[in-house]
C-alpha cells in the first residue's frame, strides 16, 4: 500500500496493518520461527526491491512493533554478489527461512535461490535453479510444493515453452547443497485458437487438441488431437452430475468427422449421412459451416450453415450418428463477414443475432415456441429487436480478426461483447431498439481477445481415459 502493508489471513478474516510512512519501502517477506512455542513474526522491507545496498533494508518485529535497520550483505561479499538482484518481489517462506529467485547481473546465465535467515540476519545463495536465463522478461515463479519442497514455473519469453520443476526430496533449509536434482514436467506452449461455450462447458481449441473446462468448479480435461478441431460436446445420459457419464465430443478436420467417447477414450470415424427436411434440396449440394462451435440443445448439436446466399441450421444427433438440415434461418446472407451468432434462449429455444456487414443493421431473432429437435418444420422465428444506429461499428471488424461477437439476453435487453477496428474490446447494452450504454474494457484483456458468453455451471467436467 502507499504508506505501509497488510498481513492478512482471509480464511480467518484477520489482518494486521503495518504503517511505514516512507512509502518507498515495500515489504518483501514475512516469516517466523515456528519451531518455538512463542512464534516471533518479523517482516523485511526494502525500498528498491534490491538487496545490494544494506542501508535500504529494514526489519520490523510484529510483537514489539519495533524497527531495525539491517546492514546486511551476501555471505562472501564479492563484487559480483554485490550486484545481485531479486526477481521475485515477495519471498517464499519455508521452515523459518525466506527464499527469493535472483541473478547476479545481466550477463549471468544462471538463476539461483537466495535466502534470508531472520535468526542470523544473513543473506546467502542457497542453490542453483535447474533452468537458465533466456530473456530478462522470462516468467519465473517460486512456490512451496507439498509443504516441504520447492516448485519453480518458468516460461521462456522467446519460445513460450513452459517448464515446471520440483525438488525431488524434502528441502533442508540449512544446506542448499543437499538439494537433489529437480524433476520436471515439460509443458509445451500452445496458442488458443477458438473459445466458446457448449453444453454448460467452455471449449478452447488449441494447436494440438482442445480443453473442456468448467472455470466455476476449477475443472478441466485435455483431449489431444494434432489435426482436428473440437466442434462440440454432448451428454446422452440422465444423470448430468456424474463425472463418468456418456459424454461425447465431435471433431472436424479435412472434410472428416470424428467422435471421441470420454468414458472409453476411444475415437470413431463418422460416415457422414445427411438428411434434409427440404425435399427440394439436392443431396449433392454441400453446405458450409459458419459456426466455430456447435450449440447444444436436448441431445443434439446445431450449427449455422450457408448454401449460396441462404442461412440454415444443421444438427447432429449423437444417438443416431446423423447430420440433418434442421430449418431455415429468418435472415439471408448479405456479406461473408456478417455477424451471425446462435445461442440458447430460455433453456428450450434458440436466439439468433445478425448484423449486416454492409449496412450495420442489427437484428435479434428468437424462436416463438419450444424447439422440437426431432423436427425443424415447426420452428417459427419472431423478431425480438432491430437496431439501426448511425455510425455503429462492425461486430466483425477485420478479415484477420474474424471472431463473432458474444451476447446474451437479459429480460428485454441485449448485451453484446465485440472488438473495434483497433482490437479494443467493448461491451454494448441495447434496449428499446437503441443503444443504452457501452463500456470500454481496458485493464482486463489484451487487444483482439478471445471471448464468449458463459453462465456458471455445477456440472463436473467428465474424466478422460
UniProtKB/TrEMBL annotation:
<feature type="domain" description="F-box associated beta-propeller type 1">
    <location>
        <begin position="194"/>
        <end position="461"/>
    </location>
</feature>
<protein>
    <recommendedName>
        <fullName>F-box associated beta-propeller type 1 domain-containing protein</fullName>
    </recommendedName>
</protein>
<dbReference type="Pfam" id="PF07734">
    <property type="entry name" value="FBA_1"/>
</dbReference>
<feature type="domain" description="F-box associated beta-propeller type 1">
    <location>
        <begin position="2"/>
        <end position="175"/>
    </location>
</feature>
<dbReference type="InterPro" id="IPR006527">
    <property type="entry name" value="F-box-assoc_dom_typ1"/>
</dbReference>
<dbReference type="InterPro" id="IPR050233">
    <property type="entry name" value="A_thaliana_F-box"/>
</dbReference>
<dbReference type="InterPro" id="IPR017451">
    <property type="entry name" value="F-box-assoc_interact_dom"/>
</dbReference>
